[in-house]
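Problem 3 from the worked examples.
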Amino acid sequence: MRKSMINIQAVYGKYDELIAEFGEQEIQEQISCLLLQCKEFIRRLHAEDVVVVNTRLLTHAVLDYYSDVSRLKSFHKIQNINDIKDLAYKAHWILKRRPLQISVDSQEDDTLTFINEKFIMSLISSYFLSDDVAAPIVDETLTIYRNFLNSFFYALKFRNLDAQAIELLILGFCAGRHLGKDEGKSTR
């Protein structure tokens, strides 16, 4: 294990039940996976000298995510959660904990001000575009898609969205994409 990784037992010693339920290895892998995604996102923005990932905050976000998943599974008496719920709860806790941090103050450029929201948009956009079954996003639908993403980004920045609201936004988009496949076929 690398030195930059935080020992989850040290951060959440009181979360023994959570660690017992999911396993330290699974939680650690989730932290590592998100850390890699964060670093790749920062690299693509060419912001390595300006943005850092606070691994303690990322660890808290992941453990808070697992805490919510545990409650969901217990309440609904289910074994697993679906991909959309998984993404929504991760997004919620990353937005809440804000592990991507601007390390250099720049008076001239505030493009990184909403870096955590941009990271979440990157994750969710990747999810949107990963569905091979959905209608392609071209021409007129590309404009609609961009408008949707702009509105979604605005909501992430300025609205108090909980995991359920994020989940509903993702579900709504996915439903629209699937309905778009049948465009031109009247249902009336």
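Problem 4, a separate protein:
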Amino acid sequence: MADFYKPFFIAKWIFIGHNISILGDFSYVASKKVVMKSSRLTEIVLLTICRGVLLLFSLLPLRFGIALAEGVAWLYFILDRKHRRIARINLGIAFPELSAPEKTRLARKSFQNMAEMLVLVSRFPKLVNARRLERLVRYSGLDEYLRCKAAGRPVLMLTAHLGCWELLSFAHAVFQRPLHFLYRPLDFTGMDDLLMKYRTLSGNKPIPKKEALRKVLRALGQGEDVGILIDQNVQASEGVFVDFFSRKACWTFGIAAMAMRGNAVVIPAFLVPDPARRGGYLIRSYPSIPIQKTEDYEADILENTTRFARAIETAIREYPDRWLWAHRRWKTRPPDDPADIYADV
């Protein structure tokens, strides 16, 4: 993820990387190698550019800003052979029946989805106003969440790098209540401060990843909500292998452990284009995922993680052009299938 010289480098830094936590971890805004080598002046310049980009998109009419950002993303898609190749490999795994042109179209739309999200994030200061936000975002399937809160139950909002995950957590806090989200602090402190400012505008509360288990369980114990991005690759020591588009992928086991120990209701939710309103967005909540709790802890972890993966796959199949295909999702391999899928990238 270190080829930052290409035209769409700011959006890539912000929205591509591994372990982007709820909702958008931004942990690869600048890679560690780049940050270690960069001078203070370089950091100031990059931070100024990022602020300028966010300001520009916040001032432009929304639809025009999105069209402009998508145009730049289209150019970046053409130039970035590496991530274009990764996206096509992933699409070949998930949708082998699709033609090459259709896979290319989905990969390009995935890049443009991130550009659209950048524009939406830039407008967060204006969207803190609930009435203004209501003109842009609405809920679908909120009843179960409201019943959980009326009963005092904590909720784990399960989501993925699909649609605008940043606006999902932001809008949920404006419309309902703030939630906790996990994050990894950046080495680039100026960028970390800037991004945290946007991510907490609606009252959402960050939890550093190093303190995740203890603080998440505390929040759940107090009946509060926690948002979790679960869809990206993890190391074998941090996860379990379950089927994902009919191929084994390594998923973190921590979310299942949190749900089981915290007695949480797990509700998958995603923010996607609203089919009923052109230019609008829909917070699509799916039915809660039953949590298995027996005397066999390891079997429960595997089964619950499998259920989570199945929920994510269902959403991706419904909105394939909105998922982050440029991530090496199947990188960590099980012992019985050790071949590196991305060896030629």
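Solution to problem 4. The longest strand covers residues 265-273. The chain has a mean pLDDT of 89.
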